[in-house]
């Protein structure tokens, strides 16, 4: 909404960076702790691995006030519609971080009761492996997501900050595609592997763009 | 006695008491394009007959039962359903839904609460949102792999789950465990009790709105988890206690690490005691709230701190000792009133008792094997695989096919931080369990919730839930 | 009690494997028929077994030849009840055979209200109906689930998994 409809030029470029900076550094997670990963998520928010230094210690219980849904734990068949409902109630822009192997792929529970990967239900931005991922892993995943949001082009179609589902910028708003779960292969370009490209940027993207360098 | 089966429930009657209003006609509400804020998703997330129904739709027997009448009435006294206290008319009770995604329900627990103003009348916990099919998965995994599965049930005290499975397997195998493995297991299990109760104190404090307690509890817990990481390789879900012993020996210098943990946690417990017990608000919120009596607790099969808070001095470590609990000195903490404050005190003091046990374990740890030397059960040491063909074959057999357990069935129970954690294991002589059923204490303890919440305020419902200390992983398995 | 003081009991044998430290798992097991089941359990409750520790069910479809005492006819399902006596500090196990064609057993709810959730779980996962139970509905699975997963003729539900790097559907 709003900025996505504007043309991308020098003036809006500055505004975009400001908006992305703001979105990155006050991204509020929604409490979606399900199982063991929830405990590690709580540990990340607690004293030793403080998440507050990234602006994220405020775990909003209400999805309306949250930006990031960290799906922490195994999603059972009974929980799946609830997950989708909470995701739908979140306001744009929103991101999903699939924490742990159970949320990413079903984990060690390849059986009737567990949804094999939460990306069958919601589109996922970052996957954090581990069983459970140590707090350092989760923080690395969160920081990767922050980099995605901060350095990605928000005027490109698709959810703001989401790369997997980005279509060409000429296409009109198509809410179904933006919110449909990913099958894992659309949008991933092997020539520009996102996970490698993002990470701590070595150059300041604002300066890089203004001198015409590719990001 | 009426037979309230699922077929008698009016499943397609929309719940008029739910929070979202019915769609108003003429506003262009189109179900086809509804993105989820309308009624469509209520139907999708509704669990039909498992939910709480309004008074109009409830059988009088159930109303009587929900009033606690079944457990509290002496024999021969009957209650007329019309006498059940509710001053307002039927339409004024509201059924609200707390749950499954809720910051205070300790996991994915859904509570349907019938409220009369702020007073809780009936409660129904709806569970199953974390059902993982672990008992079915266990039938596909060998006994060596089994502890990776069970350890994720009660994820706050994973070593207890592994212990109970290992004890069941060893009972069926009929092997004698070396002393050192028992003592190592005891050390790890008591440290796990400390970390689980610290976690409980953190979340309980948070539910009483003490955010500092949350941070303190996690700070202590990190110390214990760092030791676990050093010993087992993982902070949680360790897969350390396996049938036959433990996966590895304790690292060098473990006595110092554990002594540091004990010496740090103990004085800090006094600080938390002062923070919470000394605070009048905390005491008012927890004393006299969530009362249980001993008869109710026994009738509902409650165990652990819930049972001990009612005055019944039952602790499996003392009554039916396993490992080497009969060789260490510790007290069983018993409450008097069965309220939340008793349970809080019990858990706080159980941390102290666990530290006492841990100190004795440090003194008494014998030298020896950390796992039984029976070749059929234990894999050989990794170094020997390079040297001996036989060791290589044994390693291969144990880790691919697993070891065979004689046919039989056994039930063993241990005292986990939540109560009696039991494992009923049926073996048919193959390397995989035929049926493994884990008796999760939280699954049974959740039955106390309607009783604890009835007549209290909604704010006390949150604390009652926290006081039961449910871990949904073992509730739903 | 003083940590550093004398323990007051025999010093433990260190380094020895000793059967006295094996967990006590030798419990008495009884095999009543479905008709006698409630009476037997009621008798035990009056005889000091205050708590029903656990109630579960087992499906013996793929292992029919299990050892049972004489006079007990093996059926497909078994309902296993573990009772606990706090006063006598002992456990007892009751195993009731339940045929597949008529998987119905009386409920223990009136004797032990704590079996409410356990019986619902046995119904949900194995399909055994407990007559007289106040709320015989599913507890762990969604309400519209079909089938009873813990039965031996119900598959685990594995999804085939490709090794990563290989092309093809996930």
Model description:
The complex is a heterotrimer of chains A (215), B (477) and C (170). By secondary structure, chain A is α/β, with parallel strands linked by helices. Helices cover 34% and strands 7% of the residues of chain A. Chain A is built from 8 helices and 4 strands, in the order αβαβαβαβαααα. In chain A, helix 2 packs across helix 5. With 477 residues, chain B is mainly α. Chain B has 2 domains: 117 residues, no CATH class; 279 residues, Cytochrome-c3 Hydrogenase, chain B (Orthogonal Bundle), CATH 1.10.645. In chain B, 44% of the residues lie in helices and 10% in strands. Chain B is built from 20 helices and 8 strands. Chain B has a 3-stranded antiparallel beta sheet. A 3-stranded antiparallel beta sheet of chain B has the order 6-7-8. In chain B, helix 7 packs antiparallel against helix 8, helix 7 runs antiparallel to helix 19 and helix 9 packs antiparallel against helix 14. With 170 residues, chain C is of the alpha/beta class. Chain C has a domain of 101 residues: Beta Polymerase, domain 2, CATH 3.30.460.80. Chain C has 2 helices and 6 strands. In chain C, the strands form 2 sheets. Chain C has a 4-stranded mixed beta sheet. In chain C, strands 5-6 form a two-stranded parallel ribbon. The longest helix of chain C is centred in the last third of the chain and has 12 residues. Chain C is globular and about 55 Å long. Chains B and C meet through helix 2, helix 4, helix 6, helix 7 and helix 14 of B and strand 2, strand 3 and helix 2 of C.
Q: What labels would you give this structure?
A:
heterotrimer, A: 215 residues, alpha/beta, 4-stranded parallel sheet, C: 170 residues, globular
Write the layout of secondary structure elements.
The complex is a heterotrimer of chains A (215), B (477) and C (170).
Chain A: H1 10-25, E1 29-30, H2 36-45, E2 68-72, H3 80-89, E3 95-99, H4 100-105, E4 126-128, H5 135-151, H6 175-179, H7 194-197, H8 205-210
Parallel strand pairs in A: 1-2, 2-3, 3-4
Chain B: H1 40-44, H2 60-66, H3 69-72, E1 94-98, E2 110-116, E3 119-126, H4 134-138, H5 143-150, H6 158-173, H7 179-207, H8 211-232, E4 241-242, E5 245-246, H9 254-277, H10 280-286, H11 294-299, H12 305-309, H13 316-319, H14 340-364, H15 382-387, H16 389-400, E6 408-416, E7 419-427, E8 435-439, H17 441-445, H18 449-453, H19 458-468, H20 472-476
Antiparallel strand pairs in B: 1-2, 2-3, 4-5, 6-7, 7-8
Helix pairs in contact in B: 5-6, 6-7, 7-8, 7-14, 7-19, 8-9, 9-14
Chain C: E1 28-30, H1 37-46, E2 51-59, E3 77-85, E4 90-98, E5 104-106, H2 115-126, E6 129-131
Parallel strand pairs in C: 1-4, 5-6
Antiparallel strand pairs in C: 2-3, 3-4
């Amino acid at each position: 909404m709003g900025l996505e409809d504007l043309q991308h030029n020098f003036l809006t470029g500055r505004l975009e960076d400001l908006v992305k900076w703001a979105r990155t550094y006050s991204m509020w997670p929604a409490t979606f702790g399900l199982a063991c990963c929830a405990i590690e998520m709580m540990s990340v928010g607690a004293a030793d691995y403080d998440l507050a230094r990234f602006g994220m210690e405020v775990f909003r219980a209400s999805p309306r006030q949250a930006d990031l849904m960290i799906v922490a734990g195994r999603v059972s068949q009974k929980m799946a519609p609830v997950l989708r409902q909470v995701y739908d109630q979140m306001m744009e822009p929103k991101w999903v971080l699939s924490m742990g192997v159970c949320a990413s792929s079903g984990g060690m529970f390849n059986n009737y009761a567990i949804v094999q990967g939460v990306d069958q239900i919601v589109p996922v931005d970052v996957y954090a492996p581990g069983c459970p991922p140590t707090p350092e892993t989760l923080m690395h995943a969160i920081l990767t997501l922050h980099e995605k949001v901060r350095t990605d082009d928000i005027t490109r179609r698709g959810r703001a900050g989401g790369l997997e589902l980005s279509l060409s910028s000429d296409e009109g708003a198509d809410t179904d595609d933006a919110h449909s779960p990913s099958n894992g292969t659309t949008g991933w370009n092997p020539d520009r592997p996102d996970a490698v490209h993002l990470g701590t940027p070595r150059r300041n993207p604002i300066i890089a763009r203004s001198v015409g360098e590719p990001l | 006695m009426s037979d309230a089966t699922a077929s008698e429930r009016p499943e397609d009657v929309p719940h008029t008491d739910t929070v979202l209003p019915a769609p108003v006609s003429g506003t262009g509400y189109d179900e086809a394009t509804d993105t989820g804020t309308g009624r469509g998703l209520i139907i999708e997330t509704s669990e039909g007959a498992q939910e709480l129904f309004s008074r109009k739709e409830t059988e009088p027997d159930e109303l009587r039962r929900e009033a606690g009448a079944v457990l509290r009435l002496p024999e021969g006294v009957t209650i007329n359903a019309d006498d059940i206290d509710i001053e307002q008319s039927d339409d004024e009770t509201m059924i609200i839904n707390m749950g499954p995604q809720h910051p205070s329900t300790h996991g994915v627990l859904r509570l349907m609460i019938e409220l009369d103003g702020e007073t809780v009348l009936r409660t129904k916990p709806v569970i199953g949102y974390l059902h993982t099919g672990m008992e079915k998965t266990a039938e596909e995994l060998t006994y060596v792999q089994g502890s990776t599965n069970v350890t994720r049930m009660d994820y706050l005290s994973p070593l207890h789950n592994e212990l109970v499975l290992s004890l069941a397997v060893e009972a069926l195998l009929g092997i004698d465990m070396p002393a050192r493995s028992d003592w190592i297991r005891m050390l790890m299990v008591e440290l796990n009790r400390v970390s689980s109760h610290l976690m409980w104190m953190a979340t309980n404090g948070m539910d009483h709105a003490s955010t500092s307690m949350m941070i303190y509890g996690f700070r202590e817990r990190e110390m214990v988890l760092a030791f676990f990481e050093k010993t087992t390789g993982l902070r949680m879900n360790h897969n350390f206690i396996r049938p036959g012993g433990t996966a590895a020996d304790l690292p060098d210098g473990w006595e110092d690490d554990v002594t540091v943990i004990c010496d740090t946690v103990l004085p800090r417990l006094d600080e938390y005691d002062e923070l919470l017990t000394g605070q009048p608000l905390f005491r008012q919120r927890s004393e006299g709230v969530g009362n249980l009596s001993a008869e109710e607790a026994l009738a509902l099969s409650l165990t652990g701190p819930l049972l001990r808070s009612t005055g019944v001095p039952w602790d499996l470590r003392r009554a039916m000792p396993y490992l080497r609990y009969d060789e260490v000195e510790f007290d069983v903490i018993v409450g008097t009133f069965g309220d939340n404050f008793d349970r809080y005190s019990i858990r706080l003091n159980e941390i102290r008792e666990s530290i006492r046990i841990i100190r004795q374990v440090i003194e008494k740890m014998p030298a020896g094997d950390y796992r039984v030397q029976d070749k059929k059960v234990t894999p050989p040491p990794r170094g020997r695989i390079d040297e001996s063909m036989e060791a290589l074959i044994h390693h291969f057999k144990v880790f691919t096919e697993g070891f065979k357990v004689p046919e039989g069935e056994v039930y063993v129970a241990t005292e986990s931080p939540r109560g009696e954690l039991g494992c009923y294991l049926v073996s048919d002589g193959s390397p995989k369990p035929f049926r493994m059923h884990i008796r999760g204490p939280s699954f049974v303890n959740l039955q106390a919730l309607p009783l604890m919440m009835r007549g209290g305020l909604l704010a006390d419902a949150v604390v009652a839930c926290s006081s039961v200390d449910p871990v949904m992983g073992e509730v739903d398995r | 009690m003083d940590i550093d003081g004398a323990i007051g009991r025999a010093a433990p044998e260190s380094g020895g494997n000793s059967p006295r430290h094996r967990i006590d798992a030798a419990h008495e097991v009884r095999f009543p028929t479905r008709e006698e089941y409630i009476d037997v359990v009621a008798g035990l409750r009056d005889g000091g077994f205050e708590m029903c520790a656990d109630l579960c069910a087992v499906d013996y479809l793929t292992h029919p030849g299990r050892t049972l005492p004489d006079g007990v006819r093996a059926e497909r399902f078994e309902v296993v009840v573990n009772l606990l006596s706090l006063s006598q500090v002992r456990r007892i196990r009751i195993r009731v055979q339940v045929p597949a064609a008529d998987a119905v057993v009386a409920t223990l709810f009136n004797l032990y209200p704590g079996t409410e959730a356990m019986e619902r779980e046995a119904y949900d996962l194995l399909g055994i109906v407990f007559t007289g139970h106040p709320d015989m509905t599913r507890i762990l699975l969604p309400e519209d689930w079909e089938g009873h997963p813990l039965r031996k003729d119900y598959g685990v539900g594995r999804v085939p998994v490709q090794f990563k790097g290989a092309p093809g559907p996930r």
